[in-house]
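Protocol step 6 of 9: fold each sequence in the batch and record its structure tokens directly after the sequence line. For illustration, a two-sequence batch is reproduced in full.

Sequence one:
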Amino acid sequence: MKCYLQTKDYSVSREEFELRHDENLDMLVTFPQPEDVEKYYESEDYISHTDAKKSLTEKAYQIVKSKNLQHKLRIINRHASTKKSILDVGAGTGDFLNYAKRNSWQISGVEPNEKARKKAAEKGVFLNAGIGELKDRTFDVITLFHVLEHLPNLNHQIFSLNNLLNPGGVLIIAVPNFKSFDAAYYKEHWAAFDVPRHLWHFSQTSISKLFTKHSLYVNKTYPMIFDAFYVSLLSEKYKHKRQGYFAAFCIGLWSNIKAWSSGEYSSLIYVIKRTKQ
């Protein structure tokens, strides 16, 4: 695989990494992939493991997260053939599952980070540390919101997820899209590369090819409009070492406008089902 670009971990270690292009899948791969990846999550700045609202960036993240809860559940309700049990993998501090519970779903979740699990428990959402703890359970809906890019052994993970689905079940996957305008604009400073926590960087082609191998197909895609603004805000900080709010708004807006015709939004939600017989 050829080097697509070089970038670095802007939020924790400042170490440099390559993004290598898998031409067959049209996917970028972080190189090298650390054996002890957990140490790269050990930071107060890793916001998805906290409910912090101190800085303006943290406040923006929490606002975006709140807006996305409604958007996500609307998509799930639209595509779930049976509206009963839901598993959220990488559940963070439990906000989505808490929202789903209030809307009559039977909830289960997986979150490997102990600190995040404790915060979820404070909200009455009790999470498993790993998929192995689910034993022989299956679910009508499985969601991974900005999680697939973190998981090692990608094909094995997709195989495991498929086995957890009930007949007629649906996978809802949200991931950043390195084909978006904001990714092309910020290049190595694009915050959604987030190396080395993000091991994989997907295009729409790669998602389709990866899941087709497991007799799963992309039924529908939806944009995550707010992500372009939030990612651009972080990217401005990485590129210019300051909070360029106006510039981030302009780049995020232009990215969404261009994606209106190209379909290449900053992040996309994929609705994935088993191949029709």
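Sequence two, same batch, same settings:
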Amino acid sequence: MKLVSRMRQLRRREEGAEAVEFAIIGPLLFLVLFGLIYLLILFAAQLSLGYATNVAVRYAAIPQDSFGTYPTGDQALAKALETTPFFSGDTCTPNLSSGAVNQPVALTLECSLPNPAGGAANAFRQLLFGGDEIPSSVELSASAQSRKE
């Protein structure tokens, strides 16, 4: 009789159930959490690149001296990189096109942002799914126009 009552007690106890539930749900929770953080970083980088492009195209549309000398693409890139913490001169390529006075100046910045999920995610993906590798960087681009003064 004592053995039967002991078995009923053990069956009612739920010690450790939370740990088992967390072991099942935890990895999925962390995957979603870190994925959201990564998407927020990408969103912030794209917004920063758009703002930097606007600043740089305004800078490129204004003459630098009384002789009417306008900034080059590299000078516009340097001005853009002053305003964004996400990119450097090594990771960005400017494409500046300008016409005569009162004509539009167009600037396109193409930058690559390192992908923090590259190494570990590639190993995990190859192990479970195979297929192509995850790129080591993400390409972002922004364009802006201003009237040349």
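Proceed to step 7 once all outputs are recorded. Observation for sequence two: The chain has a mean pLDDT of 84.
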